[in-house]
Amino acid sequence: MKVKAAVIKGVNQKWEIEEIDLGDPVAGEVQVKLAASGLCHSDEHLRTGASPLPSFPALGGHEGAGVVTKVGPGVTSVAEGDHVVLAFIPACGRCRSCAKGLQNICDEGAGLLTGKAISDKTNRVTLDGEPVIQMCLLGTFAPYVTVNEASVIKIEKDIPLEKAALLGCGVATGWGSATAIGGTKVGDAVVVIGVGGVGINSVQGAAHAGARFVIAIDPVEFKRDKAKEFGATHTFASLEEAAPVIGEITWGAMADVTIITVGEIHGDMIAPALAVTAKGGQVVVVGMGDARDTEVTMSLFELTLLQKRVQGAIFGGVGPRSQIPKLLELYRNNQLELDGLVTKTYKLEDINEGYADMLAGKNLRGVIVYGDDDY
Question: Which pLDDT tens digit goes with each residue over 301-352?
Fold first, then answer.
C-alpha cells in the first residue's frame, strides 16, 4: 500500500513528506494502523548522523500505538482489531539474552538501524523503488507500519492510544531507569539530569519508588516547573548549582542514584555526575551520545575507592513485555501520569516544527496525531 511518511534523505537534512510503498506482512509480521507517534530525540540523532545509518533515505519514528489491521502467517500473540503498543526494542523470547531475562537487549536489536526485517532480512518500505530504513524496524512517522511480532505488545482497549504510544520508549525508559536498573529505594536521594520526555518519567518513577529527595536538573524553567508537578522535591538549572544543596540535604552523603537523561550525552558529563553520587551509588547513563564519541572523563581513583558504578541503560533495564503492561496498570490506578506528558500535538506535515520545539525546550513530549486525511 502507498502511505504518507516523514523521511530524511541525508545527514542534517530536514524531514520530508513523501509517499512510500509499504509491504504487506510476511510470516511473523503484523500491519498496524497508528493513532499517534511520539517525537523522540533519538530520531534527531538519525538526522544529525550521531546514530549512523548504512544508507538513506530513512523513515523515522519508534514510539507508536494503534490497531492491528493485518497479520501474517504464524502470528499468534495478536489478531486483527487488537490494540497494540510498538516497542522500539524487539523481544523475541528465544535468543540468549531473552532466555536470561534480558528482553530489553534482545539479540534481534542488533538490526535496529539496518532496515532489514527480522523475518526475512528484506526491506518492508521502499521509496521510488529504493529501500528505506525503518527506524528501530518500526518507522512510526507514517500512519501505517508493517513490523515483526516481536515488536508488538497487546494492550487493553480502554487505554487511549495517543497516551499509550509514549510507553514504547520515553515512559518505560525513564521510569525503569529510576525504579529498575536504578534500583531506587524508599528514602533514597535521586538526581535526574535532563528533564525531557525520558527524564520527566525518571522523576515520577523515583517519586513512586519512595525517594526522599528527587532533584531535577534542567536549564529550561518550564521543564523545572513541570518536574515539580511530577514529583521533584528540588529543581536547579545546572549541576553546579545543585551540588552544594545535594550535599546539604543529604548530610554529605550525596545521591544514591544519579540518572543522566539529557538529549545528547557527552563524555565530560560523567565526572560531575559521579561527584554528586554517594559512596556505593551509581550513575545511570540513559541519554544517547554520538556513536563516534569514545572519550569519557572520570576519576578512576574515585570510582575504585568509593565503589561507585557507571551503568548503561536501555528501555529502563526491563523487557517491554513485562514493563508496558505493568505501567498501564499503574496508569489505570492513577499512579502513573501520562496525560500531562504531552505538551503539544502535531500533524505529520508539521514534524520539523515539532522537532524545532523539542530542541528549543518547549515540550516535554510532542506527539504526531494521525487524522482521517493521513490514511
Answer: 999 999 999 999 999 999 999 999 999 999 999 999 999 999 999 999 999 9
| Exposure string for 60-84, b = 16+ CB within 10 A, e = fewer | bbbbbbbebbbbbeebeebeeebbb
Alpha-carbon distances, residue 8 vs 35, 44, 325 (angstroms): 22, 10, 33
Task: Give per-residue pLDDT as tens, 171-194.
Answer: 999 999 999 999 999 999 999 999
- Is the model's pLDDT at 356 over the cut of 90? yes
Cβ neighbours, 10 Å, residue 85 = 28
In this prediction, residue 372 carries a pLDDT of 84
Residue type at position 305: L
Amino acid identity at 42: S
Residue 203, amino acid: V
Question: Would you say residue 291 has pLDDT above 90?
Answer: no
What is the rounded CA–CA span in Å between residue 197 and residue 176? 13
Q: Which helix (H) or strand (E) holds 353?
A: helix 351-359
**3-state SS record for 154-201:** EECCCCCHHHHHHHHCHHHHHHHHHHCCCCCCCCCEEEEECCCCCHHH
Separation CA 251–CA 240 (nearest Å):
18
> Which residues, in sequence order, are bridge partners of residue 273?
none
Answer for the pair 20, 131: CB distance below 8 angstroms, yes or no: no
3-state secondary structure of 243: helix
pLDDT for 374 equals 85
CA distance linking residue 59 with residue 46, whole number of Å: 10
Q: What are phi and psi of 366, to 5 degrees?
A: -90, 150
Q: Is the dihedral of CA 31, 37, 41, 44 positive or negative?
A: positive
* Helix (H/G/I), strand (E/B), else coil: 373: helix
Residue 130: name the closest of 110, 146, 115 by CA.
115
> What are the Cα distances from residue 200, in Å, to 45, 195, 251, 276, 290?
20, 5, 26, 20, 22
Give residue 224's pLDDT. 98
